[in-house]
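Researcher: Let's try something more involved. This one mixes different molecule types, so please make sure each is placed in the same coordinate frame as the others.
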Amino acid sequence: MEPRHFLDLADAGGEALTAMINDARERKVARRGWPKGRVDGDAPLAGRVLAMIFAKNSTRTRVSFDLAIRQLGGSSIVLDAASTQLGRGESLADTARVLSRMADAIMVRTDDHAKIEEMARHATVPVINGLTDRSHPCQVVADLLTLVEHGKGLRGLELAWLGDCNNVLHSLIEAAGLMGYNVRIGTPHGYLPDTGLVDQARTAGSQIVIVADPREAVEGADAVATDTWVSMGHSHAHNKLAAMAPFQVTEHLMRLAKPNALFLHCLPAHVGEEVSEEVFEGPQSVVFDEAENRIHAQKSILLWSLGALG
Ligand code: CP
Ligand code: NVA
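Model: All components are placed in one shared frame. Result:
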């Protein structure tokens, strides 16, 4: 049987995503107040090993995947790509074949999305995308969980995005098509998300609107999301920062969204750039719930990839 790779949200589809969100919520509630390393009662992944390869920095993804597999009864091995033989030129294909003999799943954070696709072609265990330049699907499972937990129904939800058109936005657009919500993107002229992903979401019935006026993007929104203006591995071009400046999520812009709108950010944040301190620290901000939910979301992703969910 083909392994259940999780390179993008469409690999799972809308039904499995719903199952993931529900399972994550149930497991989160069931272990409320427990020590963070205690194993869930059913230990569904007892004895399973997750290998993680990081070719880029990480705090949340690394710690949450480690906790997730532990809480499910398994364990993890963390590899820094540069200090492995990958760093000396061993091929992705051979690395995938070797790790498939030593681990039950492989999580990869890297730059070029083609690299993770190459690993998935050669792995005989599931490969999970822990962020590429193109997408960040694990983050978006946690984002959807956070929205649902805060009482937002996903079908028909109006999500506003301000700023750069990056990997996180791509996965939010992909999820829109799968879960039936709409995205209004406020971004400067000359910046656009991947047109293939936009077309896919539109074909699935979602409205994906791209505007150059940040006020238009946030007007009446149920949630407003943003991310750093310069993603890992990208250059700090001065003209980009200047172009992005009007897209900072400020209290003034938040007031144009619905009164109970939530503010989302995958973190790490650059407070004073893409978001003002008032919004980041304010009552509408759920960014630390989002961060915690990475653990609960990763558990569902691991369970789905290993055939124990959906
Ligand atoms: N949001 C996120 O993926 O954080 P890290 O880069 O710390 O893993
Ligand atoms: N867009 C950001 C997300 C970090 C979690 C980056 O790729 O650096």
